[in-house]
User: What shape does this take?
Amino acid sequence: MRMRLHTLLLLAALAWMPARADDLASAQRLWLAGQKTQAVEQVEQALARAPDDLQLRFALGVMRMELGDRAKAMSIFTRLTQDFPDLADPFNNLAVLHAAAGELDEAKAALEQALRLQPEHAQAQENLGDVLVRLALRAYQHAQKAAVAPSDALADKINRTLALTRELRTR
Assistant: This one.
């Protein structure tokens, strides 16, 4: 699962129009210039003037995610899912945060909601696949602990799934 959003996703969030285009464009320039703290401040100042602006709120959530500020990003995306329950992207981003924290069941639920809203959401589809692999590993490990006798087939599944999860983390 992509734990960090790529700059391309940030640019897409910042390019949403028409709301606060100047503020978003200015924040985008700052972000791309490596002045990430100033970019966040720019968006927060714009939000002080327009606290309900979807684009600004989403951009701030993405920035907070990128900066590793999980608690603030989680709060932003949770509120977005409540205020805009028909949008898939906030659910997808919320799922990324849950998965990064090891909260796989919550991540799966958020991704399933994103896909109910937008079945062809490619990133949510990919993220769900990653979460399901991690859930499979968890189930195999629980089965191994509960097994009365060792199982070579189960050990093989665990090893192959572990290798896949390691590979997913390096991407």
Observations:
- The radius of gyration is 19 Å.
- The chain has nine helices and no strands.
- Confidence is low (pLDDT under 50) at residues 3-8, 14-19.
